[in-house]
Amino acid sequence: MKSFVRQYAAIIISMIFWALSFVWFKIANKTYGPITIIFIRLCIAVAFLSVYLWITKGFAKIEPADRKYFFFLAFFEPFTYFLGESFGLTYVSSTVGSVIISTIPVFVILFAWIIYREKLKLINYIGAIISFIGVLIFISNPNGTISVSTKGLLLLLLAVVSAVGYGMVLHRLAHKYNAVFIVNLQNAIGALLFLPLFLIFDLKHFLATGIVAESFSVIVLLALFASSAAFALFAYSVKSLGISKANVFSNLIPGFTAVFAFLLVDEKPTVQNIVGVIVVITGLFMSQKGSVKKVHDEEIDLTGHSA
What we know:
Blueprint: H1 2-28, H2 34-56, H3 67-88, H4 94-101, H5 104-116, H6 122-139, H7 150-173, H8 179-209, H9 213-241, H10 243-248, H11 253-264, H12 271-287
Helix pairs in contact: 1-4, 1-9, 1-11, 2-8, 2-9, 3-7, 3-8, 4-11, 5-7, 6-12
């Protein structure tokens, strides 16, 4: 019974951390630019996870043939994924961002069918369609026009496409390497990719602004909880529940985000927003129902969980 409670507590807490990440970003963005937030967050996460891997002896030797895949992994996520998501969140609310990002599993499933010929059930296709309808409900005005920034929407779609690319590359590596090791290495490479952007575009502003307690502490929370602890808790749950059952819980993120956005940054949802979130979550559950391809427990889906 205790083990059962721990498994489900771990998966729910990880979803809460990932939901909070969308709200935390909005708070940090009041002071710092997206590139600063991403770069500092990645550096802190790498330091924290490296200590964890050192203590648990989780570092692994990378096979020469896999080096290019790790680079592409980091290029898709965190590099282009965070560029799209973080800049997108500067134009839309945290709840809208989480709803758009929550559709990533649908795209991953569809592209897995196209590239790897992984078969889908009819309910999966229906669920994908329902999810898109839910997104349209959420972002539309009563007269049918789009109620969110087009630029923000396009940037978030870049994040979605990046997450799909990440998922396809991860498919080649997940069965060879520990999940925490993969996340740490992709974050380290991602930090190196962001370093020139930080030096060119944001360093002057960061030095002029200095350390603002509220915003900087939120970046630390992003690094420790969304980029580190949430992945560890998720990995723990996957080993007990399996990837299919565990991944279904990610559908709760938009709902959690809407609640936290209301409580922490006063984003008040409309009735249409609430209906849209419910439809999206319903469709996502249907799109992932009944996995027809057995997936190894260590092949963990780490795509698009956090801001």
